[in-house]
Design brief:
The protein has 390 residues and is of the alpha+beta class. It is 64% helix and 11% strand. It has two domains: 2-205, no CATH class; 222-386, Alpha-Beta Plaits. It has helices at 2-16, 20-48, 57-76, 89-106, 114-126, 131-153, 160-212, 222-239, 253-260, 262-279, 303-319, 346-362, and strands spanning 243-250, 285-290, 293-299, 321-324, 327-330, 333-339, 368-371, 384-386. It has a six-stranded mixed beta sheet with strand order 2-3-1-6-7-8, sandwiched between helices. Strands 4-5 form a two-stranded antiparallel sheet. Strand 4 (321-324) and strand 5 (327-330) form a beta hairpin. Bound molecules: guanosine-5'-triphosphate. Residues 216, 249-254, 257, 262, 265-266, 269, 291-292, 361, 365 line the site of guanosine-5'-triphosphate.
Length: 390
């Protein structure tokens, strides 16, 4: 049974291709080919039962089949991939309409059966063709059927058949006009849906941005940072990789607001964020923790390396100036850093970072203080190492 299944799967892969896109193209082709083969069968049947006035059906069938084989070879070999429409839907439609018009001319008294097929062929184009292509198909169809009808009329002598051919042509016009109108409506609906999808994607991106990032500075917000902290602390527990947390607070920020105004303070916060982000690694995250307080999460970072990075941040902020309304504003930052101890509640890590920051402020600001263990767990003597005096 499984051998049978494998054999069927292998045969299908061979005939239809294994990739999803190729499968869609070849399956569409198979559907169109089945329609063509059914038409060939019907014409041979009519010929065999002696319906009058039928032309050379065999030549027509040979040309139609050869055309089908060429289309299949182009799609299945992947050659059609170099064109804008690899499924060759437009080309297949033009070819099918030509075969249909030729069948109309050849079918003699049985020509009536070919017209419903024209409607089916046009249905194939409704979902994929552009409106320009459909108009081209309609004009092309009108021309080919006019020729087919003229060709048939040349062999007619009775006057009443002129009216009958007039009625046939009228039906061809109706079928082509209706399919063009319906395809135009479908194109409009597709365009509308594409536009709505784009708007939804943009709205979703905006919501995600607002949910995770601070509007003023573009740094991660507290909520997003808490999620990252949970993820990274669990990872650190498992891998034993060091995880550092640094709390940053801009020094005397109130003075900036008071001296230059709140807007200047906002610009300073934006500039500060940019400067810090330029100095940390892409794998580290800067978040606005609140007001003028920020947090940096340094993943897989040993303390000595982290201190070098933070010193880079401190120095860059101190060297920077914020230009606002003709004023040059200088900033400094105090930083408290600590290492996450595997298994501990992260609140404890944050408290330690806060204690280190407090110490940095108390010791004169514009400096980094590292606190490796909490003040209340080590004989009430915090292991505070001052890294850089301001
Ligand atoms: N412009 C602006 N100011 C803010 C924002 N958030 C907080 N602040 C201000 O930041 C200032 C923080 O002041 P403080 O907490 O007294 O601290 P500080 O002046 O920085 O002094 P130290 O931290 O002790 O060095 C307050 O004036 C807040 O109004 C903001 O989004 N924009």
């Amino acid at each position: 049974m499984s051998v049978m299944k494998t054999l069927i799967r292998y045969s299908l892969d061979l005939v239809l291709g294994s990739g999803k896109a190729m499968r869609i193209r070849t399956s569409q082709f198979v559907l169109a080919a089945l329609l063509m083969l059914a038409s060939i069968g019907v014409l041979f049947f009519m010929k065999s039962v002696g319906i009058g006035g039928m032309g050379d059906v065999r030549l027509w069938a040979a040309c139609s089949t050869a055309g089908l084989m060429i289309v299949y070879a182009l799609i299945r070999s992947g050659y059609s991939l170099r064109w804008a429409d690899p499924s060759l839907a437009f080309v297949q439609m033009l070819f099918a309409i030509a075969c249909n018009a030729a069948a109309f001319a050849l079918a003699g008294d049985g020509r009536g059966v070919t017209l419903p097929l024209l409607a089916v062929i046009l249905m194939f184009g409704m979902f994929g063709l552009s409106i320009q292509q459909v108009i081209t198909v309609a004009v092309y169809g009108l021309m080919l059927f006019a020729e087919a009808i003229l060709f048939s009329l040349l062999r007619e002598t009775e006057r009443t058949t002129y009216y009958l051919y007039g009625a046939y042509y009228f039906m061809v016009v109706i079928v082509l006009a209706s399919s063009t109108f319906l395809t135009w409506r479908l194109c409009e609906m597709r365009e509308h849906m594409r536009h709505q999808k784009l708007q939804l994607t943009q709205a979703l991106e905006k919501i995600q941005q607002t949910a995770n990032y601070d509007e003023l500075t573009g740094a991660a917000n507290r909520r997003h940072m808490l999620q990252l902290i949970q993820y990274e602390s669990q990872r650190s527990d498992r891998s034993a990789n060091p995880l550092l947390v640094a709390m940053l607070d801009i020094d005397y920020f109130k003075r900036i607001n008071d001296t230059y105004g709140h807007q200047a303070g906002d610009v300073a916060l934006q500039k500060f964020t940019k400067t810090v982000q330029e100095k940390i690694r892409v794998t580290d995250t800067l978040a606005r923790w609140g007001g003028e307080e920020f947090l940096i999460l340094l993943t897989e970072t040993e303390l000595d390396v982290g201190l070098i990075c933070l010193e880079r941040v401190r120095a860059a902020v101190a060297a920077d100036v914020v230009k606002f309304a003709g004023s040059w504003i200088s900033l400094t930052v105090s930083i408290g850093v600590t290492r996450y101890q595997p298994g501990e509640a992260f609140e404890k890590t944050l408290t330690r970072a806060d204690e280190a920051l407090y110490a940095a402020k108390a010791q004169g600001r514009n400096q980094i203080v590292c606190l490796q263990q909490s003040a209340d767990t080590v004989d009430s003597m915090p292991d505070i190492s001052k890294v850089k005096a301001g």
